Amino acid sequence: MLRRLLNFFSSPTLPNPSGDAERDIRGAQVNAGYPYYQWGGQNTGPGGPIVPLQPMFYPFQPHIPNAGGFPAPYHGYLPPPYPAPMMFPPGQGLGYPFQIQGVASANAALSSTKPGGIGTEGKVKEEVREVGPTSMAVQSGKALKEEDPTNDATDWPDGPQRREVPFGHEKRKWKDTKWVWRSSGNVYRNGHHAEMRLCLGVFSCNNETCRRLVRPKTGPSSRTQQAKEPCRMCKSDLVLTKCDAKTYHYKISRNGQAFLVWEHDGHHKHPRPPGGNLSRAQEEAVDKQVLRNFDASAHELWTGDTGPGSIPLSEISPALANPRAARYQLSQSQARLGIAPSIATKGGLSILRSLAELQEELKKPFMINSSLHGPVFLMFQTPFMETVLQDSIISWNEEDSEGPNSARHGFVTDGDHSFFRDGVLIVTCVFNMLMVAWVPVLYTWILRQDIAHHRPHFRHISRSVVTLIQRRGLAFEKKYLLHVFDFSASQRGAHAEEFADAIIAMDPRFQSLTAASQEIERNEYLKQAQEAERGCEFHFWQSAERIMSNGALVPQAKSGEFNRLLRSLVSSKTSLEDFDTTVQTLRSEFPRIHGWLSWWLRPAFASMIFPAVSAIDRTIADQIPTTSNPVEHQHSLLHHAVGVDQDLIPGIKKLFLHVQELESQYTGHFDPASARKYRPPAHKEWDANDGRPPDTEAALHPRGIRDDGTQNPNALLSYKWRSPNSCFVDNSLEIWFRAYSLWSDEARQAFLLLVPKDSFLDGLTYRYDRCLKYMHDSTSLAKFKQDLDLTQTIILNYVVDKWKLVASGGYGCSMEWLSTGVKDGNPPLEIQAHFGVHYLLTRECVKGHASSASALDRPQVWLQLYERDICTTQAFDISRKTVALSDYFAHFIPRGHAVGGSTESGRTPLHLLPNEPCADKSCTLFSAITRISHSWPQVLNIVSDARADSNTWRDEGHCFAWQNEDQVAAQPISSLKFAGGEVVISVLIPLAAPTGQYGDGDEMEAAAAG
Prior knowledge:
Radius of gyration: 45 Å
Low-confidence stretches: 1-149, 703-710, 898-905, 948-1010
Strand content: 15-25%
Distance between the termini: 96 Å
Shape: extended
Mean pLDDT: 74
Structural class: alpha+beta
Number of strands: 32
């Protein structure tokens, strides 16, 4: 099909014989810029009927006989002085059936213009070539090169321009420009419904020295908000330069062929807005850079290289100077080139279609199992991988346990979290004698990490082992199902479930058992699974290194001893007795690691890592690896070969390529290298005076010294006194917070799980947890102060408004509101017992009927120190002048209110309570107290029974003492060791007030703990 580039112009108008409208040289009337044609013989008025023209396009060849001899009709806008293009009415014209495919303007040199439409002395430069469906553009007589989409007329059109393409053959971005447009609805354009879009102009900074341009947003509300925002560079106002340019988008039909039309009208009298999408040519330029270095990162393409053809992305488009934009365009280019799909192309049906076509594309079995409902997984294994798995079982059965490969048996399993962008790739490896290397034998992609998703992976391996054993007639041993993995609960649980199912499959008698017996048998098999589970010792030492690096948990002076004790735990030569002794030493020497040590001593974990308590047979343990490093190395090889962060379908294909490469080593003439000797990395010795300041803990505090200068200043912040009185709240809040901060992590977690959510204790511990967070963040001092003020306000609201213990602005008692707070919301006994002593009385009659009951209505929040008990304690050693708290509790006598009655205001010893009728209804005897059990709280609150007496108590530098010369009890406040562990001591030291009212400063509290 021929495409001609023509120039159009209109000739001077002739006098109008009818007087009602101007006529052009062909007799067509021109009215308001639209030409009309007069039909002969159908006069309905002066000049005959006026029929509007429809947009029609005919090819035109000037000076060729029978071609018409006049310009081809064109509907559009031409620049002045031409009033309108010439056109023909429907049914009239040239009369030859040419079908135009595309028309574009060309430069024409016209020396003169005469009536008749073509200058007799003018010459039209024609370009004739065979073309397919393409676009058409006309703009002010300028030639547009379609093969160069970066032309300003394409990216930044200005003035009249028209593009037309056959419907269904339009190229990508054929009508895109870099101006900012927004649709304003449909209008009539040349007799067609057309969508009109308006140019939104550009924002510019009104600062003369800045003049920064900002691209308008297309949303009206967003653009309104954008106009209110200042310039990001100089903070001046943004001014919008409006524009009257428009574009029209519509469809026409000509000779049975539909065409899409894009027309531009108006001039842009404003600067070009920055940014915008890339044009087609710019995208193609990016594609060329990606093709020449398809594995380069966006940063590499952004920078460019010294090779031929390299163009930095920022030179293709200024918008690509933004790293985020460069990364996005790289992903889009890779999707266009088929290197990797973009995120936008993902879809459910496309994924399913790709998975269905995957097997045919790979030409070899690879995806052997899958599920898209329930646990979502995809399982991959080639025949080569199945062969390697079977070889590993056979070699373990035939090889001597003392051979060179004795520690290279069993399965090693781990999850690769980096290979796929979404989900986890579970990998199991075995050692292959031929390749002298660990080889993956099963891959499973799972969507989530729970037991249900892991089970298909372990199920396939277990069934493969059972099938091989049954086929070859081998004796089944549990070691064939042994896995080495990390301490993931989901992996261990899935392995145990499939371990039990495998043993059941080998036992034909199992199905004959009753349902109850089957459940018992299966539970027993689940326990036996520990005999086929080994943990990764490397993961243990990684965790230990993190603990040792924290001087607050393991003092640097004791790090060597700590390391020696841990190595004793993991040593295969450690006996069970030595193991228990080592654990006790760790607990006593390093009390702050109690939670960490307790986690590793859980039976399931301890059996996997500590040989002294392991369920694995010692002989078998020597034949398997102690770490999961073999499969970790396979992760590294896979990443090095094909990369990480893969989308699902491309990742599966690359995974298959990696397996193919391993198979080529197995089947080819691959001579594996001998094992390399370990060479420690070279260590550079620094001179003593190399200009480096002391910037490590070891350099600054060689003996692990920590003084006030190394503390977080937030740790010393407390509540600000609030007028007229808040001391009785502030002191108690602070002392309980200091005690709470010394709780172990396990104690806090157990408490928070049980405390009622609407109780006072829940709110209090929530505020305490926030304080602990601020104490470790020195940058949030202002927020910490605000939080302390809010906590103080909340507590005062409880005391004054809710509990009504004190009038607003009155003086209160620390003891009373704390006791009330513990009971608020009626928390369970085990929660209240965190703050008070609880006693359990055991009674027994002479016939041996025993019963136990609580001695008190609720735990005793405040434990009183009694004068007579101090004297009794001192009586054990007459020479003793002082009685320490440890001495007092060594001879502690439980006292308190009896349940349902009063025993001298709680002062009567519990062991002196009267006998009660036997709890056995058939017995008529009385039962006496035979045992009193103590339940010590997490916070032990102590108060003297002289708090309301005239004796004055005072603070003696973290000591408390009576002023009576012959009865003195002095003890630095500290934690006490009981049979159940350590508790935090909270001591209340009141000063007597003759009026019985406690005012500001009348109560002092202190707390400390070991």
